[in-house]
Amino acid sequence: MSDNTVYRRLGRRLRLAVIGGGPGSFIGAMHRQAARLDDCYELVAAALSGDPERSRVAGSGLGLAQDRCYPGGQALIQSEALRADGADVVAIMTPNDSHFGFAMQALDAGFDVICDKPMTNTLQEALILHQKVQDTGLVFCLTHNYTGYPLVRQAKAMVLAGQLGEIRLVQVEYVQGGRAKAGPGRKAWKEDPVRGGPSLVLGDIGTHAHNLLRFVTGLEVAQVAADVGCIVPERTTHDYAGALLRLSNGARGSFWVTQAAAGVENGLRIRVSGSLGSLEWAQEHPQVLHFKPLDAPAQVYTPNGPGTLPLAARASRIVAGHPEGFHEAFANLYTDAADAIAARRVGQLADPLSLHFPNATDGLHGIRFVTAAVASSQNQGAWTPL
Ligand SMILES: NC(=O)c1ccc[n+]([C@@H]2O[C@H](COP(=O)([O-])OP(=O)(O)OC[C@H]3O[C@@H](n4cnc5c(N)ncnc54)[C@H](O)[C@@H]3O)[C@@H](O)[C@H]2O)c1
User: Cα(22) to centroid of ligand 1, in Å?
Assistant: First the structure.
């Protein structure tokens, strides 16, 4: 990631506008920092809060020009579209129920879009938004940021290169403890099915786990048999989902996500087994990828270490042995999207290796999965096609 392809293609940085991610938001700062890491974007405009006055004050606090600290997302999109020096890209990091509306408005106004997950709250919205992206030809990046880790990309590249043989089994789990105690969480909107979506745990972290499985294996979930509910007494929103999966090539899978495992922090983990060997990666130790080949000693891959494949090599900014983490992985999505956006704007082809960032098709698959898992659970765990 040393070469700034945006400068090479456009002769300037991309102008970025953000909607959401104001004071109190964890992910807003991550987006803004990710955008800056490789110097591909400059932040020019923001609507940081749903409250007009707080939005303006927060924008000033980031050093933005007064006339580009907008009271809301719609005003930002309308005004930036009219400016000669207006934003090129709109990034959306608001509560889930507003992703669809802001993304549709931004695409209609000609902006490339970076949007946080889940892409939408309903399958109908996901279908419409996916179609809009195809019709406009604009870039749409969905920030399933865990796909940006160098060793997740190494895992994908090893599967693609056939090093695991035929994939037969996948286990993915995302275990957190933030909702282990009864009572409402810090963010009330997440508990509201209209704002947070039909399943809190599936929208919040289930879509990440599902996307990671698809990213690494290149397979789709064809059918799901799920049990979705709450493991903490008194809670009514989903804090747990367990499921068996049948994958598109006939492989079997298991999926286990919860936000109510007391004491656990951010345990996203994937294991993939093929006819020639098995891989294992865990987010809390992202610098190691275990590979256990059939009939040969176990191996450990490290970022930029021996055996690093090109898709993974470009995801590291530093020589082997120097830790990189969440910020850098998040930035890899921003930088890859920047190359696609800059290439589109000047009528060039993007670097094929930059095109692995999650997009609207991935977002649609994620919402299909949530919808099918909830339906399966409501039907006593019956096998349900996606
Ligand atoms: N990719 C990830 O790993 C990750 C992690 C956390 C959250 N998220 C996603 O990011 C989104 C926000 O989550 P969060 O945890 O930061 O929520 P949050 O409630 O902490 O923050 C939301 C922010 O958006 C602002 N906001 C609300 N409505 C708005 C509107 N209409 N216009 C402009 N700003 C508005 C709020 O003022 C707040 O600053 C969610 O979709 C969530 O799923 C993704």
Answer: 8
